[in-house]
Amino acid sequence: MDVASAKVIGAGLAAIGAGLAAIGVGAIFGQYLNGALRNPEADAKMGGRLIFGFAVTEALGLIAAVVALALAFS
């Protein structure tokens, strides 16, 4: 396997990470809505955790996308 092929395969694998982060963000908001609708009094407690979980998951997705682009165009 030559280096160019390995770079393309690595970029594809890193792009999978960005896609999985999108699924994670959807799961976070889905679980938040599930919890908030079952127990509306706990909504205030869960809001901070929702934003923190969203930010961490989205950051990992952005890092994966940047790595994929760096591998694809370097």
Key words describing this protein structure:
rod-shaped; mainly alpha; 74 residues; single chain
Describe this structure in words.
The protein is an all-alpha fold. Helix content is 91%, strand content 0%. It has two helices and no strands. It has helices at 3-38, 43-73. The protein is rod-shaped, with a radius of gyration of 17 Å. The two termini are 18 Å apart.
Give the arrangement of secondary structure elements.
Blueprint: H1 3-38, H2 43-73
Subcellular location: Cell membrane; Membrane
Organism: Candidatus Andeanibacterium colombiense
Family: Belongs to the ATPase C chain family.
Q: How many beta-strand runs?
A: 0
Beginning-to-end CA distance, first to last residue: 18 Å
Q: How many strands, which pairing sense, and closed or not: the largest β-sheet?
A: none
> H/E element string?
HH
Number of helices: 2
Instruction: Determine the strand fraction and express it as a percent band.
Output: under 5%
Instruction: Tell me, rounded to a whole number, the average pLDDT.
Output: 92
Question: What is the CA-atom radius of gyration, in angstroms?
Answer: 17 Å
Shape: rod-shaped
Structure class: mainly alpha
Note poorly predicted spans. Answer: none
Helix content: over 70%
